[in-house]
Specification:
binds zinc ion; elongated; 2 domains
């Protein structure tokens, strides 16, 4: 069933996204790769270029925030903005692997605790909350793989790019599937027990509880 945007008059195709498609499209929009999002929607839903462009133009980046005006209390998916009348897909993501978790994890990394000369003076200056593969955030995928790979900025300058593998344990898998925070699944023990780094390969591994 289609609808019309009451703001710009574009016809809006109501798409039913699978969990993985929703993640991949949202990931492209968040990173401002709108052209890739248009291509993906055009190919996967067999839409015309025009319809695909209209679709992407109405996907708002952040849940709740209108893509057109400054209204930021959109509460449901697929709704018209009460202020400017623009249609917003307003995709609800509900991801426990998010910026807040990544910031907490970043602060917990203490390479000094590893007592490893190779990583003396190392620190972490950021962990990307958008993983290398967006689909790895899908609950159906995480349940099986029990890991997420992302990028982290590490080193003496905190600026070298590492591939970070975050392995989930029993508790973190459960929390993830129920949209519960992962912050308490970061071990409070010495990093020796749950952080592994291979500076030569630029790889780092985290084990959550
Ligand atoms: Zn519109
Ligand atoms: Zn609006």
């Amino acid at each position: 069933m289609n609808t019309t945007c009451k703001r710009c008059g574009s016809e809006i195709v109501k798409l039913s996204f699978s969990e993985e498609q929703k993640l991949e499209i949202w990931g492209l929009i968040v990173q401002d790769f709108k052209l890739f999002a248009v291509r993906k929607i055009k190919d996967e839903y067999r839409l015309s270029l025009r319809d695909a462009k209209a679709t992407v133009a109405h996907i708002n980046k952040d849940f709740g925030k209108c893509h057109r005006c400054n209204f930021d209390e959109l509460i449901e998916e697929n709704m018209d903005c009460p202020k400017c009348k623009a249609f917003n897909y307003n995709l609800k993501m509900e991801l426990s692997f998010n910026q807040e978790f990544c910031t907490h994890l970043e602060y917990r990394l203490n390479f000094g605790e590893l007592e490893d000369e190779r990583v003396q003076g190392f620190w972490c200056d950021g962990i990307d909350y958008l993983p290398i593969e967006m689909r790895s955030l899908a609950k159906s995928v995480l349940r099986v793989n029990q890991e997420i790979k992302t990028k982290a900025w590490i080193g003496k300058s905190g600026q070298e790019i590492y591939e970070m593998t975050i392995r989930f344990g029993k508790e973190s898998v459960e929390n993830y599937l129920q949209n519960q925070s992962l912050i308490d699944c970061i071990s409070k023990n010495s990093c020796k027990e749950w952080l592994k780094i291979e500076p030569e390969k630029k790889k780092v591994e985290i084990k959550l509880i």
